[in-house]
Amino acid sequence: MINTNREMTYVNMYLLEKEVHLTDNVRNALNKIYYYMSKKGNNKAEAIHKTHLYYKHKKNVILESRFLWKQYNSRQAHIKNGKVKFQEWAKEIRELSLGIINELPFCACGCGERVTKKGNKYINGHNLRCLTQEQKDENARHMREIKSLKNRKDNVHYLDTKICKIGK
């Protein structure tokens, strides 16, 4: 079946991109939590607990309740962000089709290329072209200093215990 709802398709692709690292069991568990909440009328805690028990006893997969809770909240946030991104994308497409959006501005470094995103002043990395030689030398010195500190074997971080207060 082909989904013709543009927003749902966009949000699904956005969610797929964000959850690409999750296993099929985890994604199915998140769907099961949603099922328990929307169709069965359980609250979130009950739905997560039932899903935890289902996967533990039926599938022999241990998905901790805290993990499921965190992943479900992340999924809800991704869905919300996906809907916002879709609205921005749809507005941009409408403006493009009506000819409202002007072309993107040129890079401020003077290279003659256009920036990649509306609101940007420079192409990524081109801001360094506008620095004076003294600023470039200072940045290079600072980066070498940081690198040498990271590479030292005796680089020990001490904690000032006088300022720490331990709860009573």
Count the DSSP helices.
5
- What structural class results from the helix and strand content? mainly alpha
* Sheet with most strands: none
Q: Using the alpha-carbon principal axes, give the shape.
A: flat
- Radius of gyration (CA) equals 25 Å
Low-confidence stretches: none
Q: Helicity range of the residues?
A: 55-70%
Beta-strand content estimate: under 5%
Instruction: Round the mean pLDDT to the nearest integer and report it.
Output: 85
User: How many strands in all?
Assistant: 0
| Distance between the first and last residues' Cα | 62 Å
What sequence of helices (H) and strands (E) makes up the elements? HHHHH
Number of individual domains: 2
Compact overview of the structure:
The protein is mostly helical and 168 residues long. It has helices at 6-18, 24-38, 44-57, 65-98, 133-151.
What can you see in these coordinates?
This protein folds into two domains: 6-98, no CATH class; 104-152, no CATH class. 57% of the residues lie in helices and 0% in strands. It is built from five helices and no strands. It has helices spanning 6-18, 24-38, 44-57, 65-98, 133-151. The longest helix has 34 residues, at 65-98. With 168 residues, it is an all-alpha fold.
Please outline the helices and strands.
Blueprint: H1 6-18, H2 24-38, H3 44-57, H4 65-98, H5 133-151
Helix pairs in contact: 1-4, 2-3, 2-4
Key features of this structure:
2 domains; 168 residues; flat; mainly alpha
